[in-house]
Amino acid sequence: MRHVTIAAAAYPLDWAEDWAAYEAKTRAWVQMAALKQADLLVFPEYAAMELASLGGAEVAADLTRAVTEVLYHRAAMERHFEGLAIEFGLYILAPSGPAQDGYDLRNRAVLFGPAGRIGHQDKAIMTRFEREDWTIGPGRGLTLFDTGIGKIGIVICYDSEFPLLSRALCEAGAEILLAPSCTDAASGYNRVRIGAQARALENQCVTVQAPVVGLAPWCPAVDENHGAAGIYGPPDAGWPEDGVIARGGYDEPGWVVATVDLDQVTHSRRDGSVLLFQHWSEQPLQAVQIRTVAESPSQILTLPLNSALSGRKESAPAASVRVSPME
Prior knowledge:
By secondary structure, the chain is of the alpha/beta class. Helices cover 31% and strands 25% of the residues. The radius of gyration is 24 Å and the shape is globular.
């Protein structure tokens, strides 16, 4: 059995007076997960925007200047999380946030392991806010991370709602899909949650949602955040019947921790109660041609008007109800 203990963060953004305060907070979070025997820690999308507070109130309150401040501290943040991963012997998906890519900005999440930096994934498909209000653009393709604890793909927030991205990663070998998220309403959280659960169903794998939670009124980009951390699998034999391996309370900060057996992913894909992963390729054969069948006028039923309008009462047969005595 290949057991992996995963910790998904429901992470609040706090004002940091200085770098030491930020370093102390994030170290405490990693240490807390380490005490829970976690192998893989997942921090949320745009949790790096916490760094904007280091520039002061005026900087954090301005979208452009807040991004610039985060970029200024980006290298130090990556060194910090790399050091934590090495010190605690863990795999950590660090908080995502703006990163410079030539002249362009990306929403980047970096994965670290016990030996240091492994690589990064840039968000592939941008939301309206990123397109219309920020100058943050899409990355270039997807990355599969082949690690000592399993093969991992990253689908940042909105990316988890697009099935073909996760499908490509899973066909390349991904067993775990990480979906760090940042959503400002229950509807947004549920879109990512439903996407994560659907991807677990389709690909018969494990998915992990780690959201930002709580209010950060000092930074308009991330001023309101809602969600719940969750770890999901396919609702199949060997998994929870509803596919929910673990889920925290809505808007409750903290780690949600669960242990999964990645051999069960292999078993489900080969010999599950259903074989969605194997049967995925049959979809185009059925969807190659769409037939349209139109109802003819003679088939359309004209329902009687409401009795108040028609001037006559319509009688309906009484329903037959049988009441059984309590035993």
